[in-house]
């Protein structure tokens, strides 16, 4: 009789334990389901991935950028590093890409990593044709970047005469100074870019 009572109590305890764990199992399933759903949504939205617009910019491919645009990518998409696509193509010297993005409404005065601008990176790299396209599209020739450098200073310091000329012809102010107090002419003299020095001296 005692054994039967003990067995009945044990069965009762097992039922209680089962009743406790059933909600936990359901909760565990819900948590797993929720995490799985979030993960699925993240992949669907491309979290941690770069859009075709960015991939196209990095690979100098208007075709890939256009595919991304058709799929809903913004012409102002940004890379993982924080640069808008127009900065990427401007720095790469990809003129066709710059023209394409301008035609799709990309912001030509957008800032990227370290306060860089499309015009600033194009000027620094000496891509004079791209400098011209950006200026015609409304890029600010006196917009400062890191260390308060305007595009003209970056072009002059790096020895890019044609970029310097395009900037001056489109309203860049030659007396702008950076954080060190230097102008574009000061930098050209310091770096011994004689042709740029001669040109800028005529603009004073």
Task: Give a written overview of the molecule.
61% of the residues lie in helices and 0% in strands. It has 204 residues and is mainly alpha-helical. Helix 4 packs parallel to helix 6 (118-125). The relative contact order is 0.07. The model is unreliable at 6-11 and 20-47 (pLDDT under 50). Keywords: ANK repeat, Hydrolase, Repeat. This is Ammonium transporter protein. It comes from Candidatus Micropelagius thuwalensis.
What is the topological layout?
Elements: H1 2-45, H2 52-58, H3 62-70, H4 85-92, H5 95-103, H6 118-125, H7 128-136, H8 151-157, H9 161-169, H10 184-190, H11 194-201
Keywords: ANK repeat, Hydrolase, Repeat
Protein name: Ammonium transporter protein
Organism: Candidatus Micropelagius thuwalensis
């Amino acid at each position: 009789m005692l054994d039967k009572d003990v067995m009945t109590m044990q069965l009762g305890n097992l039922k209680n334990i089962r009743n406790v764990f059933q909600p936990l199992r359901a909760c565990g399933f819900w948590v797993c389901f929720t995490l799985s759903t979030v993960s699925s949504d993240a992949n669907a939205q491309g979290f941690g991935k770069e859009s075709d617009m960015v991939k196209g910019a990095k690979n100098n491919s208007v075709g890939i950028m256009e595919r991304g645009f058709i799929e809903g990518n913004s012409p102002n998409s940004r890379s993982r590093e924080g640069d808008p696509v127009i900065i990427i193509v401007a720095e790469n010297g990809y003129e066709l890409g710059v023209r394409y993005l301008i035609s799709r409404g990309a912001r030509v005065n957008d800032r990227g990593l370290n306060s860089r601008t499309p015009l600033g990176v194009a000027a620094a790299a000496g891509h004079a044709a791209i400098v011209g396209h950006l200026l015609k599209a409304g890029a600010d020739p006196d917009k400062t970047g890191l260390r308060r450098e305007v595009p003209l200073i970056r072009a002059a310091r790096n020895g890019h005469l044609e970029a310097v000329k395009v900037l001056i012809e489109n309203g860049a102010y030659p007396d702008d100074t950076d954080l060190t107090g230097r102008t574009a002419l000061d930098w050209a003299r310091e770096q011994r870019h004689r042709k740029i020095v001669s040109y800028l001296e005529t603009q004073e």
